[in-house]
Amino acid sequence: MPSPAGRAVVPTARCRRAAAAILAGVVVAGFAVALGALAGAAAETSKVLILYSNGRLLPANVEGDRGLHEVVHAPAGRELRLFYEFLDAPSFEGPSFEAVVTAYLGEKYRARPPHVVVAVNEPALDFLLRHRDALFPRVPVVHAGVDRTSLRAREPLPADVVGVPVDYSFAPTIGLALRWHPGARRLVFVTGASALDREFEARLRVEAAAVAVRTPVEFLVGLPMPEVVERLTAAGGDTVVFTPGMYRDGAAREFTPAQSVAIMAAASAAPVYSPYSTHVGTGVVGGYAPSFEAMGRQAGQIVNELLVGADPASLRLLEVMPATLNVDWRQARRWGINDRSIPRDAVVRFKPPTLFEAHRNEVIVGAAVIVLQAGLIGWLLVEHRRRRFAEAAEQARRAELAHASRLAVAGELTASIAHEINQPLGAILSNADAADLILESAGNRRDELREILADIRRDDLRASEVIRRLRLLLARHEVERRAFDLNEAVREIGSVLGAEARRRRTQLEIRPAPGPLAVVGDRIEVQQVVMNLVLNAMDAVTGLPEDRRAVAVSVETVAGGVDVAVRDHGHGIAHEHQPKLFDAFFTTKRGGMGLGLSIARTLAEAHGGRVWAESGSGAGATFHLELPLAGTTGGRSGGRQ
Amino acid sequence: MNETPLIHVVDDDEPLRTSLLRLLKAAGYEARGYGSSGEFLLEPPADRPGCVLLDLRMPGPSGLELQAALRRRGVALPVIFLTGHGDVASSVRAMQAGAVDFLTKPVKRETLFAALRRALERDAQDRSTREEANRLRDRFAALTPREREVVDAIAGGKLNKQVGHDLGMAERTVKLHRARAMEKLGVGSAAELGRLAERLRLLSEP
């Protein structure tokens, strides 16, 4: 059975389809209108003629063209057409050639005159200045790549001839070369034989005058290329070569400047500098020059403004194209130029990408993984250290507490300890006094004196023995873990607490097990546990009739270990106190801290053992210390050093 | 009777006891040692001057218990306590019970000898007092019971008449008894008789 919702779906889908059809119709209609408009505008084209001085494949031309192309565009609603013409200087020159070109261009562009003409470099600009009125009357001209100084020689220009001049000055490049080669003793300039080459030479001679003061300058002008190569091959290590390149050598062989530079750089035994960015890669170190691409872009922007009808005279233009330093990293390397001496704003080319640049993502991921791993390892190490510190601190705290507790016991035993020590000391003093008096008296009583000295010696040893035993209570010792005889340790407690038992008129009975019982752990701490239990038991029988004032300590082997039982005949343990018996600060004694049993339990557990209490009604209490026997250690192991 | 003082040293610690005996003998005293309170009580001291050097803490009866036992038995020897570790409570009890001194081991020779001198002086004093009392007691012992009653009444400050009334006898009989008593005791006056009776009473007080 269809649900109401299912029925409702149908009309909705229909509505949607209808809406889509309407929308499609609107879009199609819109396209048609737009296409019609475009078709109508096709008649209106903005035509731009770009006139190059040199050949089409001159690298500078190619770069400049790229920049221009990037920027130039027709005004809204118009189509852009670009026309290119090449004067092919310096291959073709002279009045007759000019006449032919003028006739050709006049004929060619009569029907479709350009709206703007771009003149690239001086020959093209000169050609236009001479023939514009005949060829392209009142068509604005944009010049590009024209040197500032040579432009100044052509002033005043007509108002509709505009452009940003270029500073082709060679001085910055020459200065750079001398800075990078402070040991240079000879500066060699190489120029060619064509008219353009002569212009290079002229500029170079002017600029060289400034540096010649410091470094001797040698010009290789208009030589045939083989001779240039020969001279450069023989150049010494103290030479620096500068060349703007040449269009034609002394043997009338033609080059693009870049080609000529490549030949020279390949042959030269000295570093070669050339200002143009297009020469970087041919073997030169580098130099300062404005980028041809930037010139192209600059010209393109001016063209755009003129195409929308801007008045050429009112344009606000840069005074000069800024120069940039272009460096071939491989050459800089070759000539021992430090990376750090290359200015940061230099365009450094042919520098092999660093690992990071070449494999950015992989490097980032790899670095991230390493950092994460290092972090994880570091964190684990820190945790490990922290845990070890915590364990050491915990152990130190327990040892500290155990020691404090032993000192407290020592305080409790002060009376009996003092008695035990003062007894031999008293005997020693009286013996010494007696000897004194005997010496004062007349008569030979040497035997008597000898007897006295023997007694003094014996009493001295007796006193020191008491003190030795006391070290068990007083000394702060390094907790150690080694096997010892539990019987022996318990017996020693008997001698430490014997005097105290006598003082309290309590009978203390020690019943060791037959044969030695090896237990592993800290002997003093184990003794402390037993001692705490014995003192507790003695406290429990205080105030009872003398025949009930007895405490018995027995050592017995039990399944899986050994049991030290401390039995008294006191009142036993009140039922309600049993659960709290081993808690810290729980006590039923006046003046008691309530730490003895809690410490006893802590120490017993640290030895893999336990303490517990049994209490019969009115028949006294028995406290047990159970420890694993050496070799059967079932509790914690190895945790203590 | 031997009049040289004898010093009794009671200490369970044999080396200490030996050293004390040695010192005392070297100083010219006569001394005897006992290993426990019991041992001392088994050998009642002969009636001769001396004192007891007593260890406070011993197995079995302690020094304080021995001191009490000696008093009960009428042994009047002065007691000096020696202890390895004195506590206030036991020293107070010892002094209250009449100890001459309470010394702590190890004890200096001068301190010990000074205490011994005091103890022996006191013993000598006690001894002479006891002898005087004994002599008086002997003289009084010669009186008949009736004479003694009359002397006691007169020593109490009563007149003959009153005494006769109290004792149920005639005043004349009282005077007779009195005269006979004065003759036996060797006194010349009733006042002298009164003083003598008072002296005996004082000496006989514990």
CATH superfamily of the largest domain in chain B: Response regulator
Mean pLDDT of chain B: 84
CATH superfamily of the largest domain in chain A: Histidine kinase-like ATPase, C-terminal domain
Unreliable stretches of chain B: none
Q: Total number of helical segments of chain A?
A: 18
DSSP strand (E) fraction of chain B?
5-15%
The radius of gyration of chain B is: 23 Å
Distance between the termini of chain A: 83 Å
Description of the molecule:
The complex is a heterodimer of chains A (641) and B (206). Chain A has 641 residues and is an alpha/beta fold. Chain A folds into four domains: 1-36; 45-147, Rossmann fold (3-Layer(aba) Sandwich); 171-289 and 322-352, Rossmann fold; 479-641, Heat Shock Protein 90, CATH 3.30.565. Helix content of chain A is 50%, strand content 16%. Chain A is built from 18 helices and 19 strands. In chain A, the strands form five sheets. Chain A has a five-stranded parallel β-sheet with strand order 2-1-3-4-5. In chain A, helix 17 packs antiparallel against helix 18. The radius of gyration of chain A is 56 Å and the shape is rod-shaped. In chain A, 37% of the residues are buried. The model of chain A is unreliable at 1-11, 35-42 and 633-641 (pLDDT under 50). With 206 residues, chain B is of the alpha/beta class. Chain B is 58% helix and 12% strand. Chain B has helices at 14-26, 37-42, 63-72, 88-96, 109-141, 145-155, 160-167, 171-185, 190-204; strands at residues 6-10, 30-34, 50-55, 79-83, 101-104. Chain B has a five-stranded parallel β-sheet with strand order 2-1-3-4-5, with helices on both faces. In chain B, helix 1 (14-26) links the parallel strand 1 (6-10) and strand 2 (30-34). The longest helix of chain B has 33 residues, at 109-141. Chain B starts with 5 loop residues before the first strand and ends with a helix. The chains are: A alpha/beta (641), B alpha/beta (206). Chain A binds chain B through residues 414-416, 418-431, 433-438, 441, 452, 455, 458-459, 462, 502-503, and chain B through 13, 15-16, 18-20, 22-23, 25-27, 57, 59, 82-85, 87, 104-109, 112.
